[in-house]
Write a structure and sequence with these properties.
The chain contains 24 helices and no strands. By secondary structure, the protein is an all-alpha fold. The N and C termini lie far apart (about 65 Å).
Length: about 450
């Protein structure tokens, strides 16, 4: 409704010529030709400075064309003139999220939840903004101090969410070895013990947590604030923030995300609630549960392209390849496809033992995204199954970066052999054997280290 209002407004009362230009821009927008509408609105805004309706139209055109950075100042101009316009604030927060300015997005979304306390979309957006802030802090810490105990503790937190308790136990203990007084680690270990049926050991860890000295607020201000239950300052995180600050930033943002999602869960059934449940299920590897939640969301919002896409992804990840293929083809028939959807259709056909039918989809995926290594791997495998080994080789080689289990090396060696290049086949097979051996050794090492044992 907002978009239609703005298209109709803007130049009312102006010259017939400008009205015709504005009408042409409106027609372009209605036809989905957003890029073509942008320069027209730019000229109209220059000709009629201060016309908020035209600025809004320009912002919408830029947002729909994927030019979020350009749209943001336009939305801000409109919001300055119309501070109570909730739709503009929501669109501004979405644009800020899309360009990675999560803190600013959260600020606007907090305003929205204050003004619309029963709006599930606002609470979902706020939770996602905090979650994105936590992820950004995690990635910065990973880049700057990948081997730090703070990184180990955050990895452990992530493993708990996935119910990978043995792995979490290993990483929590790594963090504890270097930071024995870090608040929250003993409590986290206690939770791992409870989840794995060791109540007595959990009690010991709870006691260890309770016995920790209070943090030194002069040297560990962020930890002190978090332990006290206060909001850690999340705005304007320094570029050169140390690992400890990034750690507590991530912890605080995750806690705020949980609070927002808890509030969402208290509201009546909504698309956003099912979406959140589906995303949680996907993160835990429970893909059929995610499928059920996406379908429940679609029952509330039939035909939504984003939900249809997510359903197709979850069906594919669940291994229901026929249903994934059906869902992907439905999206493609609606001309809403992408490289990822083409890949899912093609790879599903390959897994259904229909390699010849898979090839056009996989080629289309690579045409849309030449760097999609997964499509190269599937296309190489499809071609090799059809006896087209020489054609398969370059695709398999392009996909070697994905090969964490050796399977692509194995297929490449077979293709070299079938193509008559025994020397390259032997070299690639030797690499395959190295990968298998290394993986087995790492698996055994992790199995030894990740045994859940009593507290020390």
């Amino acid at each position: 409704m907002l978009a239609l209002f703005c298209f109709a407004a803007g130049v009312r009362g102006q010259s017939d010529e400008r009205a015709k230009v504005a009408e042409h821009a409106r027609e372009l927008m209605a036809a989905g030709k957003y890029e073509s509408a942008i320069p027209i609105y730019q000229k109209l805004v220059q000709a009629l400075p201060g016309n908020v309706g035209l600025v809004m139209n320009l912002a919408l055109a830029e947002r729909m064309a994927g030019r979020d950075r350009e749209a943001i100042p336009q939305f801000e101009t409109v919001l300055k003139a119309q501070p109570k316009n909730l739709q503009v604030r929501e669109m501004l927060s979405g644009a800020l999220m899309d360009v990675g300015r999560f803190e600013q997005a959260a600020s606007h979304l907090r305003e929205l939840t204050a003004m619309l306390p029963d709006n599930p979309h606002a609470w979902y957006g706020l939770g996602m903004s905090y979650q994105s802030m936590a992820q950004a802090a995690f990635e910065r810490l990973q880049k700057s101090e990948a081997a730090s105990p703070y990184m180990a503790a955050l990895v452990a937190d992530a493993q708990v969410k996935r119910k990978q308790y043995r792995s979490a136990f290993l990483f929590y203990n790594k963090a504890l070895k270097e930071l024995p007084n870090l608040h929250g680690i003993h409590a986290a270990l206690a939770e791992v013990y409870r989840k794995t049926g060791h109540a007595e050991w959990a009690a010991q860890e709870d006691a260890e947590e309770a016995a920790l000295p209070a943090p030194d607020c002069k040297t560990h201000a962020a930890e002190c604030e978090f332990v006290a239950g206060h909001d850690v300052q999340l705005m304007n995180l320094p570029r050169a923030a140390p690992g400890e600050v990034l750690y507590w930033h991530a912890k605080a943002a995750n806690e705020l995300a949980l609070q927002a999602f808890f509030r969402l869960g208290q509201l009546p059934e909504s698309v956003e609630l099912h979406q959140l449940k589906a995303e949680i299920a996907r993160g835990q590897g429970q893909h059929m549960e995610a499928v059920r939640e996406w379908r429940a969301a679609l029952a509330l919002k039939p035909g939504n392209p984003s939900l249809e896409r997510e359903l197709a992804v979850s069906l594919f990840m669940a291994g229901d390849y026929q249903s994934a293929l059906d869902a992907a083809e439905k999206i493609l028939q609606a001309h809403l496809g992408s490289a990822e959807i083409e890949f899912m259709a093609g790879d599903s056909l390959l897994r259904l033992e229909r390699p010849e039918q898979a090839i056009p989809y996989l080629r289309a995926a690579l045409a849309a995204d030449p760097k999609m290594s997964a499509a190269d791997a599937s296309l190489g495998l499809a071609l090799s199954r059809l006896g087209k080994n020489a054609e398969a080789i370059p695709h398999l080689r392009s996909a070697l970066e994905l090969d964490d289990d050796g399977s692509i090396h194995f297929q490449l060696a077979n293709s070299y052999r079938a193509a008559g290049d025994g020397e390259k086949a032997r070299a690639v097979m030797a690499k395959y054997q190295e990968i298998v051996k290394r993986n087995q050794e790492q698996k055994e090492e992790v199995a030894r280290e990740a045994q859940i044992s009593p507290p020390k």
